[in-house]
From TrEMBL:
Hydrolase listed as a keyword: yes
PANTHER family reported for this sequence: D-GLYCERO-BETA-D-MANNO-HEPTOSE-1,7-BISPHOSPHATE 7-PHOSPHATASE
Family, as annotated: Belongs to the gmhB family.
Requisite cofactors: Mg(2+); Zn(2+)
Residues the record lists as binding Zn(2+): 91, 93, 99, 101
Binding-site residues for Mg(2+), renumbered to this chain: 10, 12, 128-129
Site (Contributes to substrate recognition): residue numbering on this chain: 102
Gene this chain is encoded by: gmhB
Organism: Campylobacter mucosalis CCUG 21559
Protein name: D,D-heptose 1,7-bisphosphate phosphatase
Marked site: Stabilizes the phosphoryl group: 52, 103
Pfam families from the UniProt entry: Hydrolase_like
Gene3D superfamilies: HAD superfamily/HAD-like
Length: 168
């Protein structure tokens, strides 16, 4: 089976505005340009995978059902806008549970690698927290980008940078 290259994305702060523990559809605001950028990554043969810590479930701020309802809404919006998300991996645990899936650990990425046959060296991670980048580094993902508001504000900035450097 041929390995795929993947674009790994954190959710809150990368795909949508991060207002803290986003679990209501009414609070879910897609970041500017996300649909355009992800369509372009898809055209460049990247499989799009979301890896997101959702400690609000483990902390009791919202339920697994509420998360899944929002997830279904998000995936439907992507589909309506011509973007296919291969899979959403999420960690429902609170930090003190010390699980293997919570970023900065690489459990979600390594599960995706096994399940979807991902070539991590040719893959990219985009996150908005250092824990996203740490997880990417632990998993040995080829390139990782931190949306820090300075160098990169959004996924379009990363895409433009990659195209300018002729990396894509």
């Amino acid at each position: 089976m041929k390995q795929i290259k993947a674009l790994f994305l954190d959710r809150d702060g990368v795909i949508n505005e991060d207002f803290g523990y986003v679990y209501k559809i009414s609070d879910f605001k897609f970041r500017d340009g996300i649909f355009t950028a992800l369509r372009e990554f898809s055209e460049l043969n990247y499989t799009i995978i979301i890896v997101t810590n959702q400690s609000g479930i483990g902390r009791g701020y919202y339920t697994l059902e509420q998360f899944l309802e929002l997830n279904e809404f998000m995936l439907n919006e992507f589909s309506k806008n011509g973007v296919n998300i291969a899979k959403v991996y999420f960690c429902p645990h609170a930090p003190e549970e010390n699980c293997e899936c919570r970023k900065p650990r690489a459990g979600m990425i390594l599960n995706a690698q096994k399940e979807l046959n991902v070539d991590l060296k040719s893959s990219i991670m985009i996150g908005d927290k250092q824990s996203d980048i740490d997880a990417a580094n632990t998993a040995k993902i080829g390139l990782s980008f931190l949306l820090d508001g300075e160098n990169f504000k959004n996924v379009i900035d990363v895409l433009d940078w990659l195209k300018r450097g002729k990396i894509l």
